[in-house]
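Repro:
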Amino acid sequence: MGLGRELGKDADSSAAIGISIVSAPAVPLGSANGAHGHGLDQTETTRLLSAAAYLRPDSPAEFRAWRQNEWAKLRKRMTPGFIKVWLEKKRESEKDADADALPEKPQPKVIIGTDYVRWVRDRVANGRPVPAFGFELTPVVERCTAAEHLLYIRRAVMALAILAGLACLYTSAAEWTLAVVTLGIWAAFYLDRLLAHRHLIRVTEESDESSTKARVLTRKSRRALDAVRQLKFGTVIPYVTEMRADSPRYHFVGAGKVWYEAQIGIDVLPAQPKPKKDRTPGPAIPSPRFEDLFAPDGPEPTGVKQFTPDNLLAHVVSQLKRGTAPIPDFHPDNRLEAYGVAAISAERWKGITPEQWTSLNVLAEQGPRAVGAERAPKVARRFLCARVISWDGELVASVFVGFAYEDHYLRVTVRPHVINPLHPTLRAADGSAAGSGWSWHRHTWLASAVDMVLMLAQLFNPNKGRLHPELDEQKGPVSLREAYSTRYMDDMLQYDDARRYIEMMQRRIFDSVEQFLVDHNVDIGSYREQTTVILQNSGVINYGEMGSVQNQPGAVGSQMNARPPTAGGKA
């Protein structure tokens, strides 16, 4: 990694590159236990996202937190006015004394268990799921559909309890009706937690339990399974526009947090011949005139070989996949994936027809000039996606590159994305599966009682909407991996790896583009100046998110969020 500008000089140089098919890998590169090439279906990320279907919320802890919050509100209402003023002044003085301290921002709320199963079915696997980065979506949806039978078992036990209570009304034990119903509902929640715990142990142990063992599937669940099983590799990806105070930010759904964005624009001019050393330098060559650069009916500038953005994309993909030749013994394996994708607005995602879906995949793999490809540039554009999957699927660094060439002007746009770590609630799956003994059963008995109280509270609050993760805005396509990520990347080692992958991919992409321009006799002076500024700034100032560093871009109170650095190094 980090091969620099000498990349590929020892390798066999290919001939002129035409419009070749750039296909995605048949099996996404990933690892099981760190071994390369085993797929993503058994990674830790896939396992924990599957285990969320069998997790159950810690109801007693949530009840205690709710009680403390209500008690704090009651005390605030009962406090006299002059004491409130004194407390506010005290908090302001403490805040001024520690101005550099970051305010505590909790992790986004997520749902688990039955609510998680229904959310995955109705939102993630509904229609055409967005591409999965760093995990395999199919086994997760299969486990969720298999876990749905626990809901039916719980409802069946509750129905039997209610019927038993009604039967007591017509016997001499009518006074036991309420006790029978209450005990039966409690037993239903306890049985649900007990069965879910057993399935959780199997999932966390990475057993080969197939989720196709589900005996009963609803119409929605069967439709969700068919959607993910028929989904080919994610070469069509939606994007959304996130409006900010300074400028919009474009986010490829599923790829994670958006880091800094870089743009390079150059006039495609022929390279000037190098002066010979034995001759005296001649007069300075004047700059070309405007009519010479942008002649409407004239050919390309003299000496520049004609090319298209598809030629450039195919060349960059081949260079990223090739690496160096020969590969030295100390050089690690190349884990970098590179392939073409078709980017379409999230507003059009739901209305994609089967015919348009086929044309979008042809656009991603072969380009807009291929037969059957989507040709309307306002509908979809072709991008290069380069990514590295590491940390057993939990770290995915991606770079989306767009090439535009028109009127002798070439523009290269680079948009890096990084997926943050998994939510701490999913991290607790291993600890939940390890619970056993009487202490676990006592806690489960209490949690079942609290579950029963919460169910009764929801019956008297019918206006409460269905639960969903906080990061799901309930509109447009949603990514399961993004909805169950943390707000910040607070692990130093993971953050260092993310920066290293992004910088390595950027440098290799810039070097490949430069080599392509040299091969086509294009002046690269302006291109080198711009790439040098971008690489220098990205090595010092990074727009990732580290929650524990005040001056880190993306952190609360950071001054690096205003706008990207300019060529002079000032924000």
